[in-house]
Design a protein that fits this description.
Order of helices and strands: EEEHEEEHHHHEHEHEEHH
Helix content: 25-40%
Shape: globular
Number of domains: 2
CATH architecture of the largest domain: 3-Layer(aba) Sandwich
Strand order of the largest sheet: 6-7-8-3-9-10
Structural class: alpha/beta
């Protein structure tokens, strides 16, 4: 088992031996979260430690209910840790931050607003310059293939197109860290595949640091520099798996024996932690 923390783990997985360590953007230090319920205390996370470097794409996978989304809420500043702390660029996260963008499982677009109106919501809340934020939203919409749809309403878009608007909304204020909580889970298989390729391209273009939550092992392997595996509740990081494939990755990557072997390794980890082996 290899736990995270040392800075030498933060070079890209495919070039860790010949690249300088990355600056740590996100760090969790001995984080625990306990909820008080009518039936007593429930510990969602326990002694969780991790570190993510600038520009890395890191996925977290784990059993349902293991605390993946709880950790994402901590990182987004929407929830406080019971003990330990989560840091962004060395400073504790104590609430929502302009430096953090969030993309949820459902885009939750406002039906009375146009695509452009939804895309700039975060910029308006943050009171960013209207002309500059509109220009940035327009550029991002063009980059995800929605240049001709900025005056359309959500109900006129497909599920994949709506999720693209959600991604643009998360990027429009130019955060340094993107949090993505199963953003493609509700999409059909073909659209999900297309969106995975689109996200890889967008990540390579923007250079953002990404923390990606998913239940889909192939999706995690395809997108990530590293995949972190969480234990059943109370969740903690029990394994780190480096992804060695060069980028950009295409659909043919998924058809290779090496890709299948890495996915199978992660599946075996799951059966082991769930006691199914």
């Amino acid at each position: 088992m290899s736990l995270l923390g040392p800075a030498d783990l933060l070079a890209p997985a495919a070039a860790r031996h010949d690249a300088a360590p990355r600056r740590v953007v996100l760090r969790a230090r001995d984080v625990s979260v306990t909820y008080q319920t009518k039936r007593g205390a429930v510990t969602a996370l326990e002694h969780l430690d991790l570190a993510i470097g600038a520009g890395e794409f890191v996925s977290i996978v784990g059993p349902s209910g293991c605390g993946k989304s709880t950790f994402l809420k901590l990182t987004a500043g929407l929830l406080a840790a019971t003990s330990g702390r989560v840091e962004l660029d060395g400073a504790p996260i104590t609430g929502p931050s302009r430096a953090i963008g969030v993309v949820f499982q459902k885009p939750n677009l406002l039906p009375w607003k146009t695509v452009m109106g939804n895309a700039v919501i975060n910029a308006r809340v943050l009171r960013m310059d209207r002309a500059a934020s509109t220009a940035r939203a327009r550029e991002l919409l063009r980059s995800v293939g929605l240049a001709d749809f900025e005056r359309n309403y959500p109900w006129e878009l497909s599920g994949g197109m709506q999720q693209r608007v959600g991604i643009v909304r998360g990027l429009v204020h130019d955060p340094s860290l993107m949090l993505m909580d199963e953003p493609f889970a509700a999409l059909d298989a073909m659209t999900r595949e297309q969106m995975t390729l689109e996200l890889q391209r967008l990540w390579r273009t923007t250079g953002k640091t990404v923390l990606f939550i998913t239940h889909a092992i192939p999706e995690a392997v395809f997108l990530s520099d590293r995949v972190l595996v969480m234990s059943p509740r109370p969740g903690r990081i029990i394994e780190e798996v480096a992804v060695p494939f060069s980028r950009p990755r295409g659909l043919e990557t998924m058809a290779t024996a090496e890709f299948g072997a890495l996915c199978n390794r992660l599946r075996r980890l799951f059966t082991s932690v769930l006691g199914l082996d």
